[in-house]
Amino acid sequence: MTRYYLYDKQTGAYIGCVEATIQPENSTTIDPALTCHFNPYFVNGRWLDKPLEAKPSIKQLLMQQSQQITLLQTMVMQQDQDNVKLQKANAEQVSQIKQLQQMFMVADQQQAIEKSKEVTAQ
Fold first, then answer.
1. CB burial of residue 42 (10 Å; 0-12, 13-18, 19+)
2. Which residue(s) pair with 74 in the sheet?
3. What are phi and psi of 110, to 5 degrees?
């Protein structure tokens, strides 16, 4: 019996190995482990390492970071505008609270004056 190393007919990707007396279709006796370190595929009578997917280039990474920075800047500017609106609303509320406090103080003073008039009238 001979050991045969199977590969996919369309892609050449390594499938596995079998021991057989007759060589199966899409197989070879060449062990892919002898020439390949990772991701072997069979082409032109030999096993090759299929290249890993290319990592993004530095230029691509810089462009992505630039886009992310621009997006963050836009978000910060929007938050700044929202903060300005909130500060304005807070200032208006503070003004309204002061007006209400003054109104209560005047009302309290008027009540005190009326009570004192009632007490002196008795």
1. buried
2. none
3. -65, -40
Q: How far is CA 32 from CA 49, 83, 88, in A?
A: 9, 64, 73
Residue among 36, 38, 40, 34 at smallest CA distance from 15: 40
Average pLDDT of the residues in 98-106: 95
Q: Which residues contact 29 (CB under 8 A, 6 or more apart)?
A: 2, 3, 4, 5, 23
Coil vs helix vs strand at 54: coil
What pTM, to 2 d.p., does this model score? 0.42
Enumerate residues 6+ apart whose C-beta is below 8 A from 92.
none
Outline where DSSP puts E strands in 13-119: 14-20, 27-28, 40-43, 46-49
Residue 95: which pLDDT band, with cuts at 50, 70 and 90? very high
- For residue 53, pLDDT over 80 is answered with no
Residue 13: DSSP 8-state: B
